[in-house]
Amino acid sequence: MIKIGDSLPAVTLMEYQHAGEGACTTSGPQPVDVQKAAAGKTIALFAVPGAYTPTCSAQHVPGYVENADALKAAGVDEIWCVSVNDAFVMGAWGKDQQTGGKVRMLADGDAAFARATGLTLDLNGKGLGLRSNRYSMLIKDGKVAQLNVEGPGKFEVSDAKTLLGQAKG
Questions:
Q1: Residues 6+ apart with CB under 8 A from 115
Q2: Per-residue pLDDT tens for 37-62?
Q3: CB-based contacts of 77-80 (< 8 A; 24+ apart in sequence)
Q4: What are the structural domain ranges in the chain?
Q5: pLDDT tens-digit profile of 107-141?
Q6: In terms of CATH, what superfamily is 12-168?
Q7: Choosing from 8, 43, 56, 111, which is the catalytic residue?
Q8: CA 43 to CA 40: how far, in whole Å?
Q9: pTM of structure
Q10: What angle do CA 118, 49, 14 make, to 5 degrees?
Q11: Cβ neighbours of residue 4 closer than 8 Å, sequence gap 6 or more
C-alpha cells in the first residue's frame, strides 16, 4: 500500500471535459498523466468507491466542494476526486454535484490507480467489482504528505475538514 513519502504511481486517469474547459477544444474524455499533473503542485486527493453512491454523493463530494476555497487558502492548488468509473460517468456526476472549477472528477476506469496504490476494495460479491477504497491524501510535488484510509464502511477520516486541517498544519 502507498504510504507517506511515496511518489504517486505512473498511471493515466481520464477526465471528461466539455469544449472550452481548460485547454480542451473538443468534448470528451481527456487523459491525465498523474505524475505530470501533480508535479510542482499541492493536491488534495480523495477517492471514493463509486459515483452516485449514497455516502459519496451526500457527504464526500459535497464536503470538498464546500471547502474548496478554504483548501485553496491553505495552499492546495487542486482538488481531485478519483473513482473506479468511466470518464462519462465522472463527468455527469461532477455536473450533478456542481464541482465545476472546484473539484476535478478523475476516472480510474480500469482501477489502475487503485491497484498501483494498493488501495483497492473488492466488491465483487455485491455486483460492483473491484473498486477503490475510501481515502484522502495530501500530495506535495507528486509525493504523499498525508494519507487517511477509511475502515470498511466508514466515513471518518477522509472528509474535507480532516484534510483541510492537515493542509493548514
A1: 130
A2: 999 999 999 999 989 988 889 999 99
A3: 77/41, 77/42, 77/43, 78/41, 78/43, 78/44, 78/104, 79/43, 79/44, 79/45, 79/46, 79/103, 79/104, 80/43, 80/44, 80/45, 80/46, 80/104, 80/106
A4: 12-168
A5: 999 999 999 999 997 766 766 667 789 999 999 99
A6: Glutaredoxin (3.40.30.10)
A7: 56
A8: 10
A9: 0.93
A10: 80
A11: 144, 145, 146, 147
Is residue 22 packed enough to be buried (19+ CB in 10 Å), middle (13-18) or exposed (0-12)? exposed
- Grid cell listed for 160: 474535507
122: cell is 473488492
Q: How far is CA 108 from CA 66, 73, 75, 164, in A?
A: 24, 28, 26, 24
Cell of 72: 485553496
* Single-letter amino acid code for the residue at 93: W
> Is residue 81 annotated as part of the catalytic site, yes or no?
no
Please report the pLDDT score of residue 112 as a whole number: 96
